Here is the input.
Amino acid sequence: MTATRVLVLNSGSSSVKYQLLDMRDSGRLAVGLVERIGEQSSRLRHTRVADGDTREWTGPIADHDAALKAVAEELAKDGLGLDSPELAAIGHRVVHGGQTFTEPTVIDEAVLAEIERLIPVAPLHNPANLTGIRTATALRPDLPQVAVFDTAFHTTMPESAARYAIDVRTADEHRIRRYGFHGTSHAYVSRATAKLLGKAPEDVNVIVLHLGNGASASAVRGGRCVDTSMGLTPLEGLVMGTRSGDTDPAVIFHLARVGGMSIDEIDTLLNKKSGLVGLCGDNDMREIQRRIEAGDEAAQLAFDIYIHRLKKYIGAYYAVLGRVDAIAFTAGVGENASEVRRAAVAGLEGLGLAVDGELNAVRGDWPRLISPAGARVAVAVVPTDEELEIATQAYALVKSD
Here is the structure.
């Protein structure tokens, strides 16, 4: 029997998202989520895709080991257990691969050691990713475990884009450079956009706008990333749900010296209490739109700041690429907030950018153009599929061995 299935695991600090896919047709067999791991009120939600049957239960799940064992039990109930000979690999989302990992990698002890060594630049993500890998390996030690790195797609950036203008020896000693994140999404969406245009990825220049609670932009020339908005960490760049994005670094010194805040307090402020939530108290774009319609000035200002930053990056990446064939909106806000898309390109007609009002108002989960017919630059909505991207990369790697 040919093994064609891939289980994709995304292990967070207190959650595990998972999908089981059959790579013969890239179809999903099961999807699920375990959340609030370590609490008495942990919850597991599992859906068998074939008939939509969903099972949900709550109760204490002590740790990731217990969570993944619970996932395995749910899959087994549907005849999709981890002991199946049809399972070809387990693909793991790993947030930070540094400069070492530029493509999907079969995990061994050396790989684990390097992921662990990168914890200082991804303290919230890499430890959880490691836990998921180790638990999955214990459950199926004979099965290839494949790491797909969020940073990998961005390793093609030239040094002129990846380097910060600080002392080179200090930067190298502490691995300070722009790594970028959301790479699996930017890779998938840039290729899907080229397909939507009926072209090969190497023939298309695309600005990808991944707009969710976390948000990032990328400039993709001929299928290769040449710039991206996130940097050493996911804090840099666009205004996000709770992250500030670009900020004068001296703000940190000012808050420490004048405000008397500790480094940890400033870290929390910029990562968890800034962005949209810091500006208006809400990080849900739907609620912000509702408040704007009701005349809320704080919500309007937060939206205006969000759009101003977004336009700056569109313009900057237009300049970086020289020629832009398409701009693609993706992720939760990018795919669903028509007003964000409209506002982001409003006034940029001189760059060939515009949206058709009726097309922009359409809601759907399929790739589509929302620019007027004959527009010089295509504007697209392209739903991201990071799990499919991880599964595709993992399966291609293990089948090539």
The chain is about 40% helix and 20% strand. The two ends are 17 Å apart (CA to CA). Residues 297-321 form the longest helix (25 residues).
